[in-house]
Amino acid sequence: MSRYSGLTTYVKHGELRNAHPVVCFSYQEEKRNHNIFSKDNNDNPLKFIFPVLMLQIILAFVLSRLIYLLFRPLRQSKFVCNVLAGIILGPSVLGRNKKFMETFYPAKEMQVLNTLVKFGVSYFVFLTAVKRDTASLLKIARNAWTIGISGYMIPVAISFFFNSTVEYHVTGCFGRGFPFPLVACPLTQSSFPVVANNLEEQDLITTELGQLAMSIAILSETITNVISNIFVVVIIFTRIGSYLAAFQIMFLISAVILFAIYIVRPTVLQIIKRTPEGKSVQEVFVVTVLLLALFMALIADILWGAFIPGAVLIGLAVPDGPPLGSTIVEKSELIVTEIFLPLFYIQIGYLTDMSSVKDMNSFLVFLLILMLLHLSKILGIMLISLFFDIRIKNGLLLGVVLSFKGVEDFSFYERWQQDKLLDKQCYATIVLFCLFLNSIVCPLVDILYKPHVRLTTTYHHTKALRLRTLQSTPKDVELRVLSCVYHEDNVHGLIALIKAFNPNKNRAVCAYVTHLVELVGRAAPLLIPYNKHRRRFIPKNSHHIMRAFNNFATDNNNSSGPITIQSFIAIAPYKSMHNIICNLAQDRHIPLIIVPFSGNQEVNRVQNSIRNFNTMLQEQASCTVGILIDRGLCLRMINLNRHFKVAVLFIGGADDREALALASRMSGSPKVGINVFKICCKQEEGKVCGVEKQLDEISLKEFKEKNVGNACVVCSEMVANNSLQMMDVVRSLRKKYNLVIVGKNLRRTQFEKEMMQWVEYQELGLVGDVLASSDFCDISVLVIKHSELDKSNNNFCPSCREKLR
Q1: Under DSSP, is residue 15 helix (H, G, I), strand (E, B) or coil?
Q2: 323: preceding bond cis by omega (within 30 degrees)
Q3: Where are the domains of the chain?
């Protein structure tokens, strides 16, 4: 058959009928190889499906990435850039050239593209459902119910006032007597996958604002789905004349849901149960679940007329996290988000034709209604938040975050256009409004929200917000330490360090041990108290870590002094995990956080992520942060019969004063020998701030007075006027001490400026970086960093200001 298009007619049972316009082409011709060396000059490769499809994918990926690189300095999200790329490739910009449109977006190629788009969207919603944990998120935020329901109902109530306006003034939108309030639900709903993805992109997923927003989004999406299903049931019973047919449809839909709950879910749990500890799920099970998601999407499309519910059902049936959920996400998320979703944005651009906006009155009225609906939602959430003592700015930002738009929202709008509820003008209006909304929301949240500022006003006005330091912690009260653990290798070094803090009957030590686990296969981060009987959320190696700390506390309480262990599991992305740790330290009034050092010669992604986490913790924590380089610290403490030898390098500054305060607490133990080296730099004495110098002298004087007559403590002075002399001082510590405590930042000495360009590990500072080299492989190092937040308060903690009075 030759290639042609037009209106075809045919005769059936003697009756002449008209058919829809069709595009005909030879299947055999499509199968042949088409190349520029073909003998037939008419065989242009761009006239055939496969080459054009590949070009569509390449153009979408390249253009979206290019726009993202250009717009990222303006703090725009990937979603905004991808939609812009789709609009540029569509009929609004490049598509205005008919030659371009006929070459890259002809009718037959769009059929293949639309199929791939549906395939990608089905897997996207499946993966977001796999990563979702509704129960745990709703338990996190108790205020989510009230705020979520209010933010959901206010736009719906407002939409009743615009029902007649839409009906008479907005042409081409929601025809056939479709009530506008039912449309306002999906127009203003907060979709959990959309909110979670945008928060993760902005590194806010672990903040208090992010946790509350995700809880509200889950609640809003649940309410929308319930109302939509009720509406579907009503339509089935009112539009189908036969009650038997309606009952059959409802029975089939219920059977699909029951199949996911009582067949798929128990089978998946059995697969997880039979997977050996520490092993990954067999590949055949992963492939089976991925195919089952497509099968359920097919069944849902046949029954519901929409494929998304089927993919969501299977996603919810698969438990989030390892071993199965995380494996599925790791193996399929990249290709879905980076290859298939750009095709979805091409489809958005293809359906968005700006030239279709011809009735400006209708366009402006509908645009104004959309703005009022979303503005009422944002203001409603902000006002309701005030009743829960949430700061007014944070309440406004919460409403703004819940207004994010994404893939699921545009899937709704595309379906409306296919069902003729929207014409091209109304669809273009919604796309433009969502694009404008996201382009404003993302920079606004990025600029205004400060994660270290707590969400509620009550917390802000309490003393809990004050900076906590080792200097301001009384020596005769319990020392609270937050010990972070990445893996089992960190346990023994942290135990030895806690033991060196000299716990006794008068000065107890409380260690908040937190196992840090990278978020994989989950959408929402978690911070949960450790419970050995709570199997679902606890990683398997957490049990070994917590058992070691509990055994240490039990043995030490029977010998030296009281040590209390409180255990937590933090599951979050490393790039934003510092928010969880900083909030935990504030809530428990902890003056010292200790994290293991994770740098060595073999650098990989995980180690870089951990190093970035350590750096962000130093910058954002409202207390002192110590980075421990463990080189057999536990073995040396056990093997030494008399003294555990500690050296403290004191050059001056807030970090060194904190290091000295920690040494002062350790000095009470008869088994710990401490040598404090006061390093003088005669050439820099005149350049040092008088107040800083006075604080240094006061701290040294207090330390010496406390340890008068203590044979285990020695104070000495050394001179280092340049970098060479400073290196000689550091080298003199080799093979003499088990632990060296040093401040991160020196007091702006000249040799520090000379050598900072050679520092490999910036989070350790100059001296810490030198001690981290292989030349000092026999010494463990603790690098102390005073809170960066003190800079907003003249760089002095409350205890320092008290000393100066």
Answers
A1: strand
A2: yes
A3: 4-42, 56-448, 464-804
The answer for 632, left when phi > 0, alpha when psi is -120 to 50, beta otherwise, is: left
How do strand 624-629 and strand 780-785 relate by DSSP bridges?
Answer: antiparallel
Q: Which two tokens stand for residue 454?
A: 């707590």
**Span 461-487, average pLDDT:** 76
> What single letter denotes the amino acid at residue 299?
I
Dihedral class, residue 374 (left if φ above 0, else alpha if ψ from -120 to 50, else beta): alpha
3-state secondary structure 281-310: CCHHHHHHHHHHHHHHHHHHHHHCCCCHHH
Q: How distant is the alpha carbon of residue 438 from its chain centre?
A: 18
Query: CA separation (Å) from 641 to 496, 622, 645?
Result: 15, 38, 11
- The total of other beta-carbon atoms located within 10 Å of residue 803's CB is 15
Reduced 3-state DSSP string for 674-713: EEEEEEECHHHHHHCCHHHHHHHHHHHHHHHHHCCCCCCE
Name the pTM for this structure: 0.78
Neighbours of 681 (CB within 10 A): 22
Q: Which residues contact 232 (CB under 8 A, 6 or more apart)?
A: 304
Q: What does each C-alpha distance from 20 to 9, 10, 230 come to in angstroms? A: 9, 11, 35
What residue type is 714 in one-letter code?
A: V
Task: Count the alpha carbons within 13 Å of 723 in the hemisphere toward its beta carbon.
Answer: 13
Q: Which fold has domain 56-448?
A: Na+/H+ antiporter like fold (1.20.1530)
Query: Is 60 exceeded by the pLDDT of residue 660?
Result: yes
Residues 691-747 pLDDT 10s:
777 888 888 888 888 888 787 888 888 887 777 777 888 888 887 888 899 988 765
What whole-number distance in Å separates Cα of residue 514 and Cα of residue 754? Answer: 38
3-7, 249-253, 544-548, 643-647: which has the minimum mean pLDDT?
Answer: 3-7
d(CA 226, CA 515): 38
How does pLDDT run across 347-372, given as a tens digit for each residue? 888 788 888 888 788 888 888 888 88
CA–CA distances in Å: residue 510 to residues 139, 314, 474, 478: 27, 44, 15, 7
Closest listed residue to residue 585, CA positions, set 504, 754, 466, 472? 466
The torsion angles phi and psi of 24, rounded to 5 degrees, stand at -110, 140
pLDDT at residue number 794: 42
In the numeric block, the tokens 């949240």 are attached to: 445
> Distance between CA 475 and CA 664 in Å, rounded?
9
Helix/strand/coil for 563: strand
Tens-place pLDDT, residues 25-75: 454 455 455 566 655 555 667 777 778 888 888 888 888 889 989 988 888
Chosen CATH of 464-804 out of 3.40.50.12370, 3.90.1150.10, 3.40.50.10860, 3.90.230.10: 3.40.50.12370
**Which contiguous run of DSSP H or E holds residue 780?**
strand 780-785
